[in-house]
Amino acid sequence: MKRLDLYFCINVALCLVMAVVVGTSFIMGFRLPPGTGHSLSLLGYTRHEWGTLHSWTSVLLIVLVIVHVAVHWRWIRCALCLGTHTGVVVRWRRWAIILTAGVIVLILLLPWVFPTRATGGDEAHHGGRGYRGGRGGELHEPVSDDAQE
Length: 149
Prior knowledge:
This protein is mostly helical. It is built from 6 helices and 2 strands; from the N terminus they run αββααααα.
């Protein structure tokens, strides 16, 4: 495969996957807003199923961006480091690179740095009765000690 064909395939894949990520975010934000859960569906998929598609296509998008950067690394290096024809790194480009890299690292590490906290909303949503609001619990009643004797 020629290099130009590879670039074209990667860019088309990036465009398609980005369209799916943006489209699913609009679907979950506007057509199936938070709180609809399993009560509404679009094209036969609930909000949770659209969320799963959104999550996995986002992971695929990140992988494709990494591949895109790796394939174009030589061009990126030349564009950032050879700001002038003398081959000297332009000072503002160096700071722009450092700032951009720092923001990207912060965004990627943010979900793992800050702890999650329970808000007490579980009982408000399910009445404190467990899975599916406690329906079907009669099938799994614990056996008492008196019944075993």
